Amino acid sequence: MEDHGDEVAADFREALQDLTTNARFEIVTLTNIARENADHGLAISEALTNHIKEAPASKTLPALYVLDSIVKNVPTPYALYFGPKLYQIFMGSYTKVDNATRRKMDEMLKTWKEPVAGSISKKPVFPLELVRPIENALLAARNAYMEQAKFQTHLMRGRPAGPPARDTPTPPMGRAYQPPPPPHGQPPYQGPPNGQYPPPGEQAYPMRSGNTPNGVPNRATPPQPAPSAGPYAHYQPPPNQGPYGVPPASGINIDKLKDDIQQLIELDRAGFAQNMHDASKQNRLKALLDLQKVVQSQNLPQEQLMIISDQVAKLAVNMRAAQAQLPPSYPPALPPPYNTHTPTPPVVTQQFAPPPVAAAAPPPSVLPQLPAVLAAALGRPASNVAPVPLAAAPPPVRPATTAGGAAPGTLSLDAILGQGALAALLAAKKPATPQQSSTAPVPPPAIIPPALAALRSPPQRAAPFQPPPVAQQQPPAAAANPLTQNPSALLAMLRQSGLLGGTPGVPTPPSAIPSLPPPDPNIITLTPASLKFPRLHLLPYLLDHLGPPCSQCGRRFPTTEEGRKKKTQHMDWHFRVHQRVAEAEQRGQHRSQFVSELDWIQSHEEPDVDYNAPSGGGGSGDGDGSESDDNDWSAAVKGGRRKKNEKKKRWITAPDEGDGTGTGTNKVCPICQEKFQSRYLEEVQDWVWMDAVVVGSGQGRRVFHGTCWDEVNTGGGGGGQGQGTMVMLGNSNNKRKMKEEEEGGGGGGGGG
Amino acid sequence: MSIPGLGNISAQQASLPSTRTLTLHPFSEWRFQISPTSTATCRLLSGTAERDGTELAQTKTYNLTRCRSKIVTFTGATLEITGEFESEHVKHYPHSADSPFVAYLNLHFLLQARRSQSSSGSGHGPRVMICGPPASGKSSLAKMLIGWATRQGEQPVLATVDPRDGMLALPGTLSAAVFATVMDVEDPEGGVGVGCTPSSGPSAVPVKLPVGYYFGRERVEDDEGLWKDLVRRLGSSVRAKTGGDQGVRRGGVVVDTPAVEVRKGEVKVKGEDGEEERERGERVEGLMHVIREFAINIVIVLGSPDLEAELRRRDRKTPLGEPIEIVNLDKPDGVVEQDRQHLLSSRKALIKDYFFGDSKRALSPSVQSFSFDDVVIFRAVDAMDLDDPNQVLERAEISEEMSHWTLAVMDASVNDPLETVRQAPVIGWVCVSDVDKDRRRLKILSTVSGRLTRPMVWGRWPEPYVNLLG
User: Fold this and answer.
1) Which segments within B306-463 are labelled E, that is strand?
2) Among A742-746, B326-330, B344-348, whose mean pLDDT is lowest?
3) Where is the composition biased (Basic residues) (chain A) (predicted)?
4) Cross-chain residue pair A590–B364, CB shorter than 8 Å
5) Residues in B touching A640 (Cβ below 8 Å)
6) 3-state secondary structure A53-102
7) Interatomic CA distance for residues A676 and A691, integer angstroms
8) How close does chain B come to A535, measured CA to CA in Å?
9) Contact between B427 and A596 using a beta-carbon 8 Å cutoff
10) A584 chain-B contacts, CB cut-off 8 A
11) How far, in Å, CA of B229 to CA of B235, rounded?
């Protein structure tokens, strides 16, 4: 059968190859194939996964729609097969497609969080744990992009609508109001909410053969080391990738990073040679050289390397884009530069190992100390490792001397990666440790000790020149400066020189308090900015984390032992109330008077206490806490002050001889030596002993007739109050047997 | 003499209009208005949805009437709705981050964090005051915060010092209650209507026990002195409650306040109905009074940076020594400006609910005849320039003028000092249905039959309900 599975997968793959449009019938056909061959679901899912991974941008969306369709129509087993790879599939596709397609993908993602439309199942298409990391990553990317936008537009001047990020000026990315999906019961395929697949022509980027060299001139660039594996190795994270661009198990390879920087330098140098008078290029080149020196000379912590390599990767993209503008023959409508499948692109920043997309087991970690945060961000078990603070690595060199703007003296992960990135990191970590209380303070934002105020001064001053290992075309700059010893300072310098986007002083939302480091978005503070920051990961604390809801009133009960018990009680209560509501209609009811101040203050709402528990003598017989059947004030004020002359029916549930509870209970009242009579009490739907009280506990536990007990302990006529042990009975003067008060009540239990 | 069956006035409509299904995306709202004479039903088919912080049970049919409200979903939902609506539409936000609920949810989680922290500290949960201009969603937010807290097992106190609201009481009353149980989704007032208070029979949704103080006026400025006194009384009751009950102490307090509008340094008081507009400099002072009496430590201003600034100017510490935190949130769009007609009909409906019950629970009040001499009815003195400052109430002269008015029954004795009577908690209301001056008898509609031994207060608001008895 294994062979057959391969065959099916091969056929499926071929069919996919032909899928270039969003033709509904083709998607339906493929879905049906998948349905019929669910036996070979694993093979088919792998075929589809690989296809999505490898398909050119134009074919990606149709393939994703196939996935969407299959998962929604044949959830078993496909949701299971695609689930673990969902993140890589989605993010991998997201990075290579254009904005229009991303919008479609956003829509699709949204539907994955909901139950399949028209289905009876209440489960979402994919579990939220799988979808949420993707959302968080997208959110982080978008937030980060906002900061970068300025820089992007600067660099991408003249370039056609750039794909690297969601670069529409306004945030609503495809989330504009969409009319609700068409009515249910349509043909099997319930697509994304817009209900239909757009014709391919709508896509901003017509299909381009992935094999066509895109003609980017390879100027002044030495031959590149071949990408380590397959076309996917060309995968470049979009600019400002938040946490998601980093493959889970690969650390930052410092050698590769050095190579990348070296390549960038050479590229930049070539650009500089063309235009000697461009001061910005000069600055950038200097900054890059500094960076190279720092990376080479210092033993930087992983976190720093990670940041640097991210930025380098971004730069590579941008610079290549800038280069691409130069040749006049270059066609105006470009595919995303980092989506090119040229055999040897001018610059390949391959600091990332190819992400283990299809592999179930991640490749051995290059650097085992890869921050756990990243692993968590990718939805992998974070093994409860707290985010590693970025702090401490670079020693504070000098306190800030000039107030160059906001946030002087501090530089946080937010400032480097862009506002929201940390939030996304932490947010993505949440699902991995769902038990974490919503209120548990998250470690404070990593703060790198004072970056120098000098950072904001022109880079020339701060640019020490160390001859890089390659031949120099640059005149050496100023003398060495301790600045270079501080990587975060360097990052800031890069930013200053226009190499990196996102000025640290202008974090988007929390700019109100400039003198503080940007607050950790995960800690909610009472500021408008913090309150407006979406924290969707907290929502389950009001929903699913509380357990499944009661079908009658929506109240949720946890699935713990205690929760189940409470729910049983609660359902019993619903049952009783339903019964009694009907009766009460006939009997006639009236609004109760409000309680006095004192009673209100002393009343106690305890929704889950069952007052039917043995020893009902304490409270009113038919009370059930605030969920009292009779909404009598006395019941509600239970536990509080009790009125004088209160003559309550006292009863206990009749001990069951069958189980252990009954064996230790006396069956005769020790005072009058009469047997207790069991009686069915309608209100509690149980057999009870009327007029019975429990005195003492444990071995000394005894059941008395309440009236007998009172008679004895009140000294026959209210003379002596109960002493010591009798507090639980209060000061009742009631000497009559309950039987007398029970007239018409079905016969007293105590019996005379 | 009791009149059984009179409560069944709001009978269900026989015809079942067309059924529609609504699909709500996450963070979208279904906003609707239903007139008092029509009913509609709503059923949650899939997903999760909630009204004012209380979740809808799946597949249970909820009957709605006489309300202007919304059902919101955070995860997406499918609703099935039937019935007649004055208007209804689905509000989608282009991005969920645009929804005002993001801030509200964050606020709730912040309060939850404070509650958790309080366990290790003073034990006092957050005391939140919500204020803002008219129609800024104050009451909705208050209900949501309470509903969410209750869902997470907290027992917070909801208090209102806005006499117009009538939370768990008739309008004209300042009241408070602990919310530990699910709120009534079907209640027109969103679970805080007077219909949710206890009756002698069972209730499918757990009832809430209020404590209320009768103000008997529509606007605070109509009798600012009394309002302040009652706020003080209510505040001290709530403090006593939180002091004696650990769960309630942890749950904290949410206080809803009368609308206050501040513009360019001047403070304006504007009626909810948009008709009355007066300038008074003391209104912010009134809020400060609430802050003091309830030991408020968190102030939420909705949609009024000017009011926020005005409050900040007076920023002080709470009696517990905590700083008072003030934050201004955007006013949500879509809050319905309550027109006068709607408010009037709501008030009448509340009075009717109080005596006759609602569609779920028909109550049988009693109409009794009393001699003028059997009842003690007070009325606030009009002229405050009396020699005796304690002469705050006077015996009201019983006349036809009193017909159809609701009187508050005070938890006091007729021999108590007038000031005590005036500030006593209210234990119920009666309605004067008929006055026969010649025979010196009057007919009174009351919830329970029996003698009326307690002093009653004839307020000046809410206005008489002429057709209460048909």
Assistant:
1) 325-329, 357-358, 361-362, 366-371, 377-380, 393-395, 406-410, 425-436, 441-446, 456-458
2) A742-746
3) 639-651
4) yes
5) none
6) HHCCHHHHHHHHHHHHHHHHHCHHHHHHHHHHHHHHHHHHHHHHCCHHHH
7) 9
8) 7
9) yes
10) 201-202
11) 10
pLDDT of A633 over the 70 cut: no
pLDDT in tens, A520-530: 667 888 999 89
- Say whether A113 and B23 touch across the interface (CB within 8 A): no
- Chain B interface disruption, residue of A430, A541, A589, most B CBs within 10 A: A589
Q: Which residues pair with B326 in a beta bridge?
A: B299
Q: What CA–CA distance (Å, rounded) separates A687 from A669?
A: 18
- Chain A interface test: which of B46, B213, B407 (most A C-beta within 10 Å): B46
User: Of A257-266, A400-409, B151-160, B263-272, which one has max mean pLDDT?
Assistant: B151-160
Per-residue 3-state assignment (H helix, E strand, C coil) for B334-354: CCCCCCHHHHHHHHHHHHHHH
pLDDT of residue B17 exceeding 70? no
More confident residue, B384 or B287: B287
Q: How far is A594 from chain B (nearest CA, A)?
A: 4
Give the mean pLDDT of B270-299.
Answer: 72
Q: Look up residue A481 and give its two tokens.
A: 């400066």
pLDDT per residue as tens digits for the range A219-236: 444 444 443 433 333 434
Encoding tokens for residue A484?
């270079």
Residue B77 marked as a ligand binder: no
What residue spans define the domains of chain A? 232-382+402-434+443-538, 611-620+644-741
What's the pLDDT score for residue A302? 62
Distance, in Å, from the CA atom of A116 to the CA atom of B242, rounded to the nearest integer, reads: 46
The pair of structure tokens assigned to B338 is 């309550």
The token pair that represents A709 in the structure block: 């007990």
Asked if residue A503 has pLDDT above 80, the reply is no
Element (H, E) at A293: helix A279-297
Residue B316's pLDDT is what? Answer: 73
Report chain B residues whose CB lies below 8 A from the CB of A538.
Answer: 105-106, 109
Cβ-based contacts of B128 with chain A (< 8 Å): none
A579, containing H or E segment: helix A561-587
Chain A residues close to B105, C-beta within 8 Å: 535, 538-539, 542
Contact B90 A595 (CB under 8 A): no
The phi, psi pair for B411, rounded to 5°, reads -85, 75
Residues of chain B with CATH 2.40.30.330: 365-458
pLDDT for A109 equals 84
pLDDT-derived band of residue A543, with 50, 70 and 90 as boundaries?
A: very high
Judge whether B310 is annotated as a binding position: no
∠A390-A395-A400 over CA atoms, to 5°? Answer: 100
CATH architecture entry for B97-329: 3-Layer(aba) Sandwich (3.40)
Across the interface, whether the CB atoms of A607 and B47 are under 8 A apart is answered no
B29 marked ligand binding residue: yes
Write out pLDDT tens, residues A41-80.
Answer: 888 888 888 888 888 888 888 888 888 888 888 887 888 8
Q: Is B261 annotated as a binding residue?
A: no
For residue B197, give the nearest of A530, A531, A591 by CB distance. A591
Domain range B9-95, CATH architecture: Sandwich (2.60)
Using CB atoms, pick whichever of A533, A587, A626 lies closest to residue B181: A626
Please classify residue A508 by burial: count the beta carbons closer than 10 Å to its beta carbon, then call 0-12 exposed, 13-18 middle and 19+ buried: middle
CB A417 within 8 A of CB A240: yes
Task: Report yes or no: B426 at the A interface, CB cutoff 8 Å.
Answer: yes
A652, burial (CB in 10 Å: exposed 0-12, middle 13-18, buried 19+)? buried
A510 contacts in chain B (CB < 8 Å)? none
**Residue B137, marked binder:** yes
Highest mean pLDDT among A221-225, A339-343, A534-538, B422-426: B422-426
